[in-house]
Please model this.
Amino acid sequence: MNKTKLVLMTALLGAAMGLTACQSTPTQKPSMEADQHHTHHKRELTPEQRAEWQAKRAQRLEHREQMREKHKAERAKIEQACQGKQIGERANVQLNNRIIEGTCEIRFTPDKSQFKRQSNATT
Model:
């Protein structure tokens, strides 16, 4: 009986010590070190750098708008592929020098096997 009490008390004491060790708080960084870290990220741009950055931003926005227009035109072609056709009828759509074959269901559905096979086609 004494042995079980000893084992139980040892386990209880070990668990309490283990939990106490896990709850220690990390030390705080000195404020000077933290300030230096934040000032590194808050770099001021020179007027030349700012002009270059704004030119690149304008170029990216223009490119994004061009891509939107291109994708809008492609979606319009896909929507028009099945106009006036019956459900189940075959249709072809030409996008980027590729011909994508598909079937008119409720909307145009490309054939997956044809799409993979024609990924490098130039006709």
Summary: DSSP finds four helices and three strands in the chain. Helices lie at 2-22, 31-41, 47-80, 112-117. The two ends are 90 Å apart (CA to CA).
